[in-house]
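Table S2 (continued). Query chain:
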Amino acid sequence: MEAGRDAASVPKVSMYTAAYCGYCTRAERLLESRGVTDIVKLRVDDDPALRAEMMQRTGRRTVPQIYIGGFHVGGYDDLAALDRQGRLDPLLAGKAL
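Corresponding output:
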């Protein structure tokens, strides 16, 4: 976690993921490089009900699907775009987009 971030104010990060998913690994590494130390991983390849939940919540079929707090980021490309735009760090700090 970055210095100055209050652990209580950091939004929960969750990611629908699957084993052997390169984009999931990239997303995890990017988040870790931004100070995220706790990612709730929801393995859709292990649980068909989780895949159905992911599709219902996101309207998408592919992993990863990333949530920061209640905000649906999307997949790895969406996460990387937020980072390039300088919008990822504020989101991780609990600031609304």
